[in-house]
Amino acid sequence: MKKIMLSIGGMTCSGCSSGLEKYLNKQNGIKNETVNLVLSVATIEYEGISIKNIERFVRNVGFESLGEFRGIDDGETKPLDKLKLVIFGILIIFMIYIYIYQSERFYLPNIPYINRDYPQIFSTILFIITLLFTWIF
Fold this sequence. Notes:
This protein has helices at 14-25, 51-61, 79-103, 119-136; strands spanning 2-9, 30-36, 41-46, 64-68. The chain has 137 residues and is an alpha+beta fold. A four-stranded antiparallel sheet has the order 2-3-1-4. The protein starts with a strand and ends with a helix.
């Protein structure tokens, strides 16, 4: 018995996936199959028929066979992505420090002018940090 995972185009709802599943289960040569709507993939166990026939079955139902499913590409991490992560982490730690300091439950060293005693400076710094977040991501 052979097994193949086909990418399926045109599935938009659970009715689509269950209709394809029911149709394929009725075909000669297909022993077992499951359809994953989220990944748009049909996993088919077959015997005695060709992949072209299976793709024809998929077309008969009204969907498109996009060929064999090769998996989800994770891609490589770029050096710029690592830099963004480091900057993002530093900004998060800084914002957490500011808010913990403002809670007055913890006694942390004071950062001059970055507290609620100077609301214009405090809000400007938070605004700049927010802009940096949107620029980074």
